[in-house]
Task: structure prediction
Amino acid sequence: MTLDEVDHRVPGPPLLALAGAVKTFGPVVALADGTIDLAAGEIHALVGENGAGKSTLVKILAGVHHPDAGEFTIDGDRVAFRSVADSKAAGISVIYQEPTLFPDLTVAENIFVGRQPRARTGLISRREMRASAAELFDRLGVPIDPDRSAEGLSIADQQIIEIAKAISMKARVLVMDEPTAALSGAEVDRLFAVARVLRDEGAAIMFISHRFEEVFELTDRITVMRDGRYVSTHRTADVTVETIVKEMVGRNIDALFPKVVADIGDPVLEVSDLTSIGVFRDISFTVRAGEIVGLSGLVGAGRTEVARAVFGIDPYDSGEVRLHGRPLRRSDPKSAITSGIGFVPEDRRKQGLVLDLSVTRNIALTLRDALARFGIISARRERAVTDDWARRLRVKAGSPAIAVSTLSGGNQQKVVLAKWLATEPTLLIVDEPTRGIDVGTKAEVHRLLSDLAGRGIAILMISSELPEILGMSDRILVMSEGRITGEFAREEATAEVVMHAATATRKARR
Result:
């Protein structure tokens, strides 16, 4: 896409335009067509599924990443940022979901850190700094004391301070990346009022959110991305939520998901009213033998936290977890393993593997007690067991003795799976089973999960990829803001209903 194709969507030249931006990291294409334009005096939403390329696009605007290809202009002039400082100098400021203020400094000091006004003596003029901060808050219509310490401020107040800092630096483009995720309704209303003030003063605002009600309430235009590519741009008043959702998830389920219909048996896992205050609440569900239950939802919905609590990694405040009808001990992963639960974590490199150890040793980590005799592990028995699982999962390694750090991401994931399958679990929890691996290996992992379900293993699969959830699940649970907001049978689930449930606050059933 060229800038000429972008310009016609905005009356007059855009303040900022990015067209056809490409960004790769080795063989991974994080952004294949990053295209968006922002006009002065508008609030422009950027929406897309997890992994659509939004974060990479934002990091290009912020100067964190330099695009490999594409056109980037401000006021019609081409720019090439080499650093975050370049981006800020050009008038771009990014307001992140969790601001990073200095807690020991005052509000005014945080706004002007590194740029403090000076008196004639050369010393910092605290009076001028306080007055300038107060003027910024008056302009935004927010009563925040410039002299109070930043420590203990709410996330909402911290975001307003970041916005005030951006204004003080003459920012003309503000990127708000999921700014409302941790805010109450009243705090969201206040943030929206500030955004409208800035828009009316001529700023261009990019608003990134998964919450459609906010997108349609606040924004003037919407740009949709999917799979790292630009899809469309609409005037918000001209489209519906249904249109945007279809464009976000418009992919076909094909041979990538070789799901085999399995016989569903008795309940294996039963979770009742599980609550961790401030994280998730009233979580209840069942996973049966031979069933793959997909746990879907947007980033921050609480899916991983629920899985970690079930496995015993994280504590919870109330509720019960039962396996084969027997209560599981809280906060006791070893007991969970002994009872027959395997857990493949989201971050395989940090939580699932010891990178400096060999393939053999990594697979054997969960078997050390079973392999030991009189406290000594036989290397021959260790190799016999682990090599069998490496072969069954088709782990591609020059030798089982090489460090697992030398393997590809897909083969590392297979080693993590082998480690847990070697324990012969009756319940397997897999968190983002195919994140960061190539398409061919994804199909292999999906085939393996389907085979395991066919052998009667109960599987709880957490995934941010809607096609994976729809293609592999017998039943789908959807979480939003720490609650289960939807439950759908395989034959009734569609991308649209799952996405609606992921942005809802009350439970839907089909």
